[in-house]
Amino acid sequence: MEIWINPACSKCRSALGLLDAEGAAYTVRRYLEDVPSADEIRAVLDRLRLEPWDITRTQEPVARELGLKEWPRDAGARDRWIAALSEHPKLIQRPIITADDGTALVARSEEAVREAISHGGKG
What we know:
- The protein is of the alpha+beta class.
- It is built from five helices and four strands, in the order E-H-E-H-H-H-E-E-H.
């Protein structure tokens, strides 16, 4: 299991604390430093069963600079969104947990973290 985090994010710290408390086996990816490629973002989106705009933090200053709220949300714009997430990783919603069974979750709640653990992450 891998968790994409920003150490400054309280939800990320909470998720890590719960993973540790539950004895989950995981690796940490500080995605602002180890920026995911467009292909990695596509793979995570497939696992999440979401579109790039679903995991975009549209309130970030860079989102406003790019005018993301005005971008189309359709198949034709998908690659543009993915490129923006890769070029500006701060836009990626966090934390994201990729579980051992191939699923992934945006783990912003305790319930989501526990669900990720149930998909294979016990150490």
